Amino acid sequence: MEGFKELVEVRVCQDDRGKRLDAFLSEFFENTTRNYIQKLIDNQNVTIDGKNKIKNGVKLKGNELIVIRIPEDEILEVLPEDLPLDIVYEDKHMVIINKDPGVIVHPAQGFYTGTLVNAVLYHIKDLSTINGVIRPGIVHRLDKDTSGLIVVAKNDVAHVRLTEMFRDKTIEKRYLCICKGNFKNIKGRVETLIGRDPKDRKKMAVVTENGKVAISNYEVIDSVDNYSLVEVGIETGRTHQIRVHMKSLNHPIVGDTTYGNATDIAKRQMLHSYYLKFNHPITGEELVIIGELKEDFKNVAKRLKLDLKKVLRLNK
To answer: For residue range 235-287, what is the model confidence (pLDDT) as tens digits?
Structure first.
């Protein structure tokens, strides 16, 4: 495996029978382009049941074992781009950004422009170097279609301390989401293991083994007929954690086509990271940062007649 950073195995489900190989892999790998996937196939980094001389458009039959060798990240120059950036807090040590939906946090396979990092490089000249040229200053991330607060470090000392704070769970993180259905319990704690869905490796799921502990605490803020506005605080930061936990409660997030169903109500999952509370990594001062909801979230809440004024923290 020399020259490759990761080997990924995925078993094709019967539900994916008839799909093109490149389309299937584009769904499996988030934040990748179809061109990148096609390049992997053309370079024989993808095998189907041990065969690597395959075409991008080969149709899957179901139950094949696909093995993908992921090359080491390219060493490249990520260029600054004059893109909109909603900065809600900034000092000489860090900046906190209210990310728009649809924006990838950092460059990844096939996505080297239009990311949050490209915008940060344009607007902010000093960034930590710990994560190299592809993720300068990036301490944590959000999914592409999740909006909200992202912390970016301007120097290595702040970066290390912020990373430790996320790891030690001393940063309080709260999200707002709009979920399908009405909850039986107004408040609750969800503690599970989360890992790859054994039936569909493109997704994460609550599992009984081979997963990582995930803890979410939720409170229903408002509810109307068949919809709920929910605040979720997370103690861990697993991939798709809130989306998976809400699905496990049979209340998938509205607009989440991966863990729920498509709807004309929302074009993306209605999930927003709106609240951070922590002590400044350098000065120790307590900070409470509020990230205003994006317009599409507000519009969906208004359409469903959910009362955002009930989110008390947004009114302070």
So the answer is: 999 999 999 999 999 999 999 999 999 899 999 999 999 999 999 999 999 99
Q: List every span in the chain annotated with CATH 3.30.2350.10.
A: 87-167, 172-277+302-315
Give the pair of three-digit tokens for residue 277: 């509370």
Tell me which of 82, 91, 100, 143 is the catalytic residue.
143
Let me know if 143 is a catalytic residue: yes
Is the overall model pTM greater than 0.85, yes or no?
no
Fold designation for 172-277+302-315: Pseudouridine synthase (3.30.2350)
CA–CA distance, 192 with 234 (Å, rounded to integer): 12
Give the integer Cα–Cα distance in Å for 300 and 222.
Answer: 14
Give 132-143 pLDDT, tens digit per residue.
667 788 999 899
User: What is the spatial distance between Cα 142 and Cα 243, in angstroms, rounded to a whole number?
Assistant: 12
**203 phi, psi to nearest 5 deg:** -115, 165
